[in-house]
């Protein structure tokens, strides 16, 4: 059935988003740990890493901002998953009631079945109305996550410059800069994958008749 194919595509998309967000959370925590390590190295380096010390605070703040955003996004993603399940169950209920109404058209209590079918259809329509709006909220939040990821890449570039002046601590601090840069790129890629999956089901939610489901 079409609704089964549609629900299946939504389940797959929401599950993949949850996996990507979990990876983003882990990477953000890694950035926070890298900031703590960099702070310790910069403290030991003293004047040689004076310019690097405030950068560690920026890195840590960016990690915290990303983690906070991902927590909010995870909550929205859970709502989306629950809404997907509810819509799927209501779609199945609609199908069952439609079959029952067709079989019991002349039965004494056929009207009660028809009333139940109307109620289930209304509830399903409400889910379908909520779905694209919730997806749009998630897309906006994911765009917000991109800002600290971009900022982290800029900070990583500045970190390399400051690390080059840290004498014997240069390699350690440059390694921190590289880890932050790599983490920011991973976050960027993961978030882009989330946005791609959401954009697809967002389109499907608004224009379900334009897509053929298997």
TrEMBL record:
It comes from the Bacteria. Gene3D superfamilies: 6.10.250.3200. This is Chemotaxis protein. It comes from Methylomonas lenta.
């Amino acid at each position: 059935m079409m609704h089964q194919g549609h629900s299946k595509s939504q389940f797959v998309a929401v599950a993949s988003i949850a996996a990507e967000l979990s990876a983003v959370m882990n990477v953000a925590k890694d950035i926070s740990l890298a900031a703590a390590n960099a702070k310790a190295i910069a403290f030991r380096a003293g004047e040689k890493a004076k310019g690097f010390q405030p950068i560690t605070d920026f890195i840590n703040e960016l990690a915290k901002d990303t983690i906070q955003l991902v927590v909010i996004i995870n909550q929205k993603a859970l709502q989306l998953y629950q809404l997907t399940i509810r819509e799927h169950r209501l779609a199945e209920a609609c199908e069952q009631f439609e079959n029952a109404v067709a079989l019991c058209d002349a039965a004494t209590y056929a009207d009660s079945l028809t009333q139940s079918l109307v109620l289930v259809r209304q509830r399903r329509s409400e889910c379908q109305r909520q779905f694209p709006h919730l997806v749009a909220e998630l897309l906006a939040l994911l765009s917000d996550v991109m800002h600290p990821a971009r900022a982290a890449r800029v900070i990583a570039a500045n970190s390399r410059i400051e690390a080059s002046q840290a004498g014997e601590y240069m390699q350690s601090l440059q390694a921190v800069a590289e880890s932050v840069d790599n983490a920011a790129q991973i976050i960027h890629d993961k978030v882009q994958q989330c946005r791609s999956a959401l954009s697809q089901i967002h389109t499907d939610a608004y224009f379900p008749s334009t897509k053929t489901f298997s």
